[in-house]
């Protein structure tokens, strides 16, 4: 790490702390040359393997963009999308792998999106899971209804 004051190529770590979200580490550093102190934030890299084989860094914005299309006209805010994208990133990072394929990201989106808005979930699932027939939609709707009834009966008990 280069010192931001004198550009010396080395620094000494004085203190390390995990961030509140647990996804990064804040390090307090000191330059042995000029004595200047500065902070750095380190995060583990997470790469996505696309269907074409191209590898690119994970992007919460891309998750939000893909889900935003499914949420058009629905009562879903940008804040809701940001929370969903963070939830998806945390779920993907918990796999412990530094590279995940787009399929895993899609699977990680389905659960939180289903909780957020069932219509947006159906829209996203229809594209992501390549629904071909009306029966595919009927099956997904039947599963949503069954889960809804199960949840309602659990609340009554």
UniProtKB/TrEMBL annotation:
Keyword annotations from UniProtKB, A to Z: ATP-binding, DNA-binding, Metal-binding, Nucleotide-binding, Repressor, Transcription, Transcription regulation, Zinc, Zinc-finger
Biased composition (Basic and acidic residues): 7-20
Cofactor-binding details, from the entry: Binds 1 zinc ion.
Domain ATP-cone: residue ranges: 46-136
Cofactors required: Zn(2+)
PROSITE patterns to which the protein is assigned, alphabetical: ATP_CONE
Zn finger residue spans: unnamed: 3-34
Pfam families: ATP-cone, Zn_ribbon_NrdR
Statement: the UniProt record of this protein carries the keyword Transcription regulation: yes
Chain positions covered by the region annotation Disordered: 1-20
Keyword Transferase: no
HAMAP family: NrdR
Sequence similarity: Belongs to the NrdR family.
Function: Negatively regulates transcription of bacterial ribonucleotide reductase nrd genes and operons by binding to NrdR-boxes.
The protein's name in its UniProt record: Transcriptional repressor NrdR
């Amino acid at each position: 790490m280069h010192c931001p004051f004198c550009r010396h190529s080395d620094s000494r770590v004085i203190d390390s702390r995990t961030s509140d979200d647990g996804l990064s580490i804040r390090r307090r550093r000191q330059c042995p040359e000029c004595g200047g102190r500065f902070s750095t934030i380190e995060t583990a890299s997470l790469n996505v393997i696309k269907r074409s084989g191209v590898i690119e860094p994970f992007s919460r914005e891309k998750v939000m963009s893909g889900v935003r299309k499914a949420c058009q006209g629905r009562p879903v805010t940008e804040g809701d999308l940001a929370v969903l994208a963070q939830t998806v990133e945390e779920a993907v990072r918990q796999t412990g792998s530094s590279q995940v394929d787009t399929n895993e990201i899609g699977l990680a989106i389905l659960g939180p999106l289903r909780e957020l808005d069932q219509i947006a979930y159906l829209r996203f699932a229809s594209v992501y899971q390549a629904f071909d027939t009306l029966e595919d939609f009927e099956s997904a709707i039947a599963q949503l209804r069954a889960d809804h009834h199960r949840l309602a009966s659990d609340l009554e008990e």
